[in-house]
């Protein structure tokens, strides 16, 4: 079996393309899925994709990833700034996680400056829009090599 990673997206990211495009751009989540699956192929990575608006479903997806995948790309969206449960799930799996944000969370409101994910992530990519997911794939490919 080849190497496999999962891209997990949190709340409201299903609205990408329509949601505050001045901040998040016009690229949809379906576009990001197509882009990352294609780029994954060039890296020899099978890319699975998951989105949920519910914190518990995201915890389940992280736990399930331990059985099926070599690493996780996670945009936890607003849960980034609130969720001890997601951080604990990441620690429990022991899988490498690359944290992604489309926007530069550090140039926005103060409440977005703190991430519960960063302390348990291998690294963080933010501010590069949809391209951040491609950069994260590159990073994860090396981490699970
Ligand atoms: C986000 C940044 C978060 O602060 C916000 O709540 C999101 C999206 C981003 O990708 O820029 O929903 O994670």
Q: Which band does the percent of strand residues land in?
A: 15-25%
Number of strands: 5
Shape summary:
globular
Unreliable stretches: none
Oligomer: single chain
CATH-level-4 superfamily name: Dehydroquinase, class II
Alpha-carbon distance between the termini? 14 Å
Helix content: 25-40%
Overall residue-averaged pLDDT value: 96
Q: What does this 3D model show about the protein?
A:
By secondary structure, the protein is α/β, with parallel strands linked by helices. The protein has a single domain (4-144), classed as Dehydroquinase, class II (Rossmann fold, 3-Layer(aba) Sandwich), CATH 3.40.50. The chain has five helices and five strands. It has helices spanning 21-24, 29-43, 55-68, 84-93, 131-143, and strands at residues 3-9, 45-51, 71-75, 97-101, 123-126. A five-stranded parallel sheet has the order 2-1-3-4-5, with helices on both faces. Helix 2 runs parallel beside helix 5 and helix 3 (55-68) packs parallel to helix 4. The model has no long low-confidence stretch (mean pLDDT 96).
Main features:
alpha/beta; 5 strands; Rossmann fold; 19% strand; globular; binds 1,3,4-trihydroxy-5-OXO-cyclohexanecarboxylic acid; 145 residues
Give me a quick take on this structure.
With 145 residues, this protein is of the alpha/beta class. It has one domain (4-144): Rossmann fold, CATH 3.40.50.9100.
Please give the structural blueprint.
Layout: E1 3-9, H1 21-24, H2 29-43, E2 45-51, H3 55-68, E3 71-75, H4 84-93, E4 97-101, E5 123-126, H5 131-143
Parallel strand pairs: 1-2, 1-3, 3-4, 4-5
Helix pairs in contact: 2-5, 3-4
């Amino acid at each position: 079996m080849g190497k496999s990673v999962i891209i997990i997206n949190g709340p409201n990211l299903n609205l990408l393309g329509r949601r505050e495009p001045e901040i998040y751009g016009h690229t949809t989540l379906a576009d990001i899925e197509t882009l990352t699956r294609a780029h994954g192929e060039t890296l020899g990575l099978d890319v699975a994709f998951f989105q949920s608006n519910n914190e518990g479903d995201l915890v389940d997806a992280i736990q399930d990833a331990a059985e099926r995948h070599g690493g996780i790309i996670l945009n936890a969206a607003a849960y980034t700034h609130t969720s001890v449960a997601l951080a604990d799930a990441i620690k429990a799996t022991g899988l490498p996680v690359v944290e992604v944000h489309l926007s530069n969370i550090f140039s926005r409101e103060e409440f977005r400056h703190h991430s519960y994910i960063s302390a348990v992530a291998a690294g963080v990519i933010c501010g590069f829009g949809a391209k951040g997911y491609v950069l994260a794939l590159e990073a994860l490919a090396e981490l699970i090599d």
